[in-house]
Records
---
Amino acid sequence: MNVRRRNNVAVTGCADGPVLLLAHGFGCDQNMWRLLTPTLAKSYRMVLFDYVGSG
């Protein structure tokens, strides 16, 4: 299986900004970042993912 699909990887934000890797805690998924991503997307390239078995 494709790693990007298995981990539900999403890459968003400013294409030329510094990269932020947002990793969630146990029992959560990348949806926990939904309130921060609109603000961070203005300045950063964000990589969000779900740990296998989460999300």
Note: The mean pLDDT is 87.
---
Amino acid sequence: MEVYVPVIVMFAIGLGFALVSIVASRIAGPFRRNRAKSDPYESGIEPAPSSSGPTKFPVKFYLTAMLFIVFDIEIIFLVPWAVHHDVLGIFGFWAVVMFIGALFVAYAYEWRRGGLDWD
């Protein structure tokens, strides 16, 4: 059980920080409702009212989110491998080569769909 004490302490610190931040923002921040604050807002596009149903967002936003997820997953798996690559040996090396190959497929898809064009 004493192995889990640091994890429990870090969880408690994170939860405490979140609660203190929420309470402090409610106490310190101004709270005035108006029409602009109540309107929905998504990814820099102000939605226009439409009688034909919900408006569609450009695929560009989803491609940007996918690119973030690809690189986030890459960091999550490659940093522990870089720390312990000598322990994992040749199996760890080939596992990472296959992982980077899969990431390259996602990266090539992003590139082909125009997710890297920032215009």
Note: The CA atoms of residues 60 and 102 lie 22 Å apart.
